[in-house]
């Protein structure tokens, strides 16, 4: 049995992880869960999995959950906030911590999990974009394995198994293209509902908007550089609308390895939990004759400026990827709340980057926290100016 803790268990990846756990109940034991605010989903998960401990983020949630757990005659321990999270990720029996928290809020929990010397199935990309080196260095020091859950990175990880890093020529990072790849109308008129309607993947709101602007692919390119220790010019983005090939790796001899499956996040989640083993899953089998064609196109950087911004930020390095990603998170939230237009997302990110006057190139936690505050404030001012 493998004991897992799921951080961010009420979100899309968290829920799918628990779905995988149900299908592997002879293999996986859910030892702990954490949510930010969704207590109702947490209650149903506690009932189903009877975890040893859970962590919530407010004392109000803690109190109401305490009463409920007493009524249910359960023995689940409840931890609170930052310190609570530290206790949760330090539970002795943990084999793998699944980090399914959305956005930059995942950084602190990831660092805590690594500090506790646990292996991590990592579904969060923002933390790697803003603090990749800090995370990877600490993981190496503490012998924590980081297994990617993002479908593309899981594919690359699988293609690289048993290969030498020095023999990788480049990574072919595939992208579905999102809902607007062939869209010919005015991008500024794109509504939230249109942007949330992804053609191949069902995901959380933030990542779905990132997929519509192609920022998601930009973040993933940086994520790949961090996870596989490669420069950005070794990452080539290929639009592949069918989302059957989840990424490829080209080697120096010209050989290209690819990983294929129907688009279903439960597969990379399961692989991250069973690695290096493979066990039977119940995802829909791939039928290539039914699919019949796989297409590939070059990305359009003019139509999708967020992708160009991300690649440029990766080239600049230092604090640029962090500023870009934090400004993006603020802009995406503003778009989801109807405060700005779809096309304002890229404008807010590039304006924020252009106005960053900090000279330091050093990415340490102290600098990051300073830059995070500055970026949030600056992006917020731009968002408010758009509303007027
Ligand atoms: Mg992905």
Description:
The mean pLDDT is 96. The chain folds into three domains: 2-148, NAD(P)-binding Rossmann-like Domain (Rossmann fold), CATH 3.40.50; 153-290, no CATH class; 317-387, RNA polymerase sigma factor, region 2, helix turn helix motif (Rna Polymerase Sigma Factor, Chain: A). The protein has 16 helices and eleven strands. The relative contact order is 0.11. α6 (126-141) runs parallel beside α10 (215-228) and α10 (215-228) runs parallel beside α13 (305-316). It has 388 residues and is α/β, with parallel strands linked by helices. It has helices at residues 12-23, 39-49, 59-71, 81-89, 107-115, 126-141, 151-160, 192-195, 205-213, 215-228, 266-274, 288-291, 305-316, 320-336, 344-354, 365-387, and strands spanning 2-7, 28-34, 53-56, 77-80, 96-99, 119-122, 146-148, 168-175, 235-239, 245-251, 256-260. Helices cover 47% and strands 15% of the residues. The strands form two sheets. Strands 4-3-2-1-5-6-7 form a seven-stranded parallel β-sheet, with helices on both faces. It has a four-stranded mixed β-sheet with strand order 9-8-10-11, covered by helices on one side. β10 (245-251) and β11 (256-260) form a beta hairpin. The site of magnesium ion (MG) has 4 residues, from α7.
Distance between the termini: 57 Å
| Largest pleated sheet | 7 strands, parallel
Total strand segments: 11
Strand content: 5-15%
The radius of gyration computed from the alpha-carbon positions, rounded to a whole number of angstroms, is 21 Å
Count of helix runs: 16
Q: What is the CATH homology-level superfamily of the largest domain?
A: NAD(P)-binding Rossmann-like Domain
Associated small molecules = magnesium ion
Anisotropy-based shape:
globular
| Widest sheet, order of strands | 4-3-2-1-5-6-7
Write down the CATH topology of the largest domain: Rossmann fold
The residue fraction in helices comes out at: 40-55%
CATH class of the largest domain: Alpha Beta
Instruction: Return the average pLDDT rounded to an integer.
Output: 96
**How many domains would you count in the coordinates?**
3
What sequence of helices (H) and strands (E) makes up the elements? EHEHEHEHEHEHEHEHHHEEEHHHHHH
């Amino acid at each position: 049995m493998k004991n897992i803790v799921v951080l961010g268990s009420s979100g899309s990846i968290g829920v799918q992880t628990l779905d995988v756990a149900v299908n592997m109940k002879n293999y996986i034991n859910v030892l702990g869960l954490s949510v930010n605010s969704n207590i109702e989903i947490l209650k149903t998960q506690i009932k189903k999995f009877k975890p040893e401990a859970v962590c919530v983020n407010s004392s109000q949630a803690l109190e109401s959950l305490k009463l409920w757990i007493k009524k249910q005659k359960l023995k689940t321990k409840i931890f609170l906030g930052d310190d609570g999270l530290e206790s949760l990720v330090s539970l002795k029996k943990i084999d793998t911590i699944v980090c399914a928290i959305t956005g930059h809020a995942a950084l602190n929990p990831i660092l805590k999990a690594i500090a506790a010397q646990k292996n991590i199935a990592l579904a969060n990309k923002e933390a790697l974009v803003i603090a990749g080196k800090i995370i990877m260095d600490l993981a190496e020091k503490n012998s924590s394995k980081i297994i990617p859950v993002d479908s593309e990175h899981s594919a690359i990880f699988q293609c690289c198994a048993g290969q030498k890093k020095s023999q990788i020529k480049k990574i072919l990072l595939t992208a579905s293209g999102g809902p607007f790849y062939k869209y010919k109308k005015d991008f500024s008129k794109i509504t939230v509902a249109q942007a949330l309607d992804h053609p191949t993947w069902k995901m959380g709101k933030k990542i779905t908007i990132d997929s519509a602007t192609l920022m998601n692919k930009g973040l993933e390119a940086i994520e790949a550089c961090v996870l596989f220790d490669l420069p950005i010019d070794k990452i080539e983005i290929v639009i592949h609308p069918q989302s059957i090939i989840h990424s490829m790796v080209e080697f120096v001899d010209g050989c290209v390895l690819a990983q294929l499956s129907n688009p279903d996040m439960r597969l990379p989640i399961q692989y991250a939990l069973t690695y290096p083993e493979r066990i039977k899953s119940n995802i829909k089998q791939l039928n290539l004759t039914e699919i019949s064609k796989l297409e590939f196109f070059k990305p359009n950087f003019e139509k999708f400026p967020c992708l160009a911004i991300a690649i440029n930020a990766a080239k600049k390095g230092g604090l640029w990827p962090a500023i870009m990603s934090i400004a993006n998170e603020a802009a995406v939230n503003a778009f989801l709340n109807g405060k700005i237009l779809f096309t304002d997302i890229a404008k807010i990110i590039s304006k924020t980057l252009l106005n960053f006057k900090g000279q330091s190139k050093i990415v340490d936690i102290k600098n990051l926290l300073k830059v995070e505050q500055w970026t949030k404030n600056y992006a917020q001012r731009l968002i408010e100016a758009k509303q007027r």
